[in-house]
């Protein structure tokens, strides 16, 4: 085999390898690779609960997830993630003494689901699905509830004229002290 043939074979193999790499990168950006959906379980029950999880693909009805978990009273558990595909999730509470289902809930999960939140109460199981749009609303609602409002003006903090003195940064980076006299303080309040 001569040098020319060896170089041609090497270039052809390199091109084929590079094409496979490009296909993998293109698949990543077009959504061909599936993500994961985290699950959180929060128990507000007074006794430990045994839960059984099953997920089935919507198109093929093939079982793609199965897990059994015991959740203690007042405990939070983070089981393994679900696939980021369209599926049905079924959560059942199992009575281990009798081997029967006490309660069961089912939810339809889509690719847009970002979190599956399961709350276990004494009498029921509740499944909450959070999608990408819900995340922003939840954060806004949480921030609004954490803000403190002052209903009575007497509860507000009062400032003395001494509290209004401070330093200002100038354009050249140095600090200069400033005093605010009563006339300026009245102008700032209005």
UniProtKB/TrEMBL annotation:
Bias-annotated ranges (Acidic residues): 134-143, 151-166, 174-190
UniProt protein name: Uncharacterized protein
Organism: Natrarchaeobaculum aegyptiacum
Region (Disordered): 132-190
């Amino acid at each position: 085999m001569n040098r020319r043939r060896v170089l041609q074979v090497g270039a052809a193999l390199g091109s084929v390898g590079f094409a496979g790499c490009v296909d993998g990168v293109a698949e990543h950006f077009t959504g061909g690779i599936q993500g994961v959906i985290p699950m959180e379980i929060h128990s507000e029950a007074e006794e430990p609960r045994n839960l059984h999880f099953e997920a089935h693909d919507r198109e093929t009805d093939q079982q793609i997830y199965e897990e059994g978990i015991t959740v203690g009273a007042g405990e939070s558990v983070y089981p393994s993630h679900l696939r980021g595909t369209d599926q049905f999730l079924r959560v059942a509470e199992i009575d281990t003494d009798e081997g029967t289902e006490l309660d069961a809930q089912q939810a339809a999960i889509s690719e847009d689901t970002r979190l599956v939140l399961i709350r276990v109460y004494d009498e029921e199981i509740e499944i909450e699905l959070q999608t990408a749009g819900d995340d922003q609303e939840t954060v806004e609602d949480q921030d609004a509830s954490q803000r403190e409002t002052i209903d009575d003006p007497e509860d507000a903090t009062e400032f003395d004229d001494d509290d209004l003195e401070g330093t200002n940064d100038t354009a050249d980076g140095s600090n200069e002290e400033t005093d605010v006299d009563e006339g300026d303080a009245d102008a700032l309040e209005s």
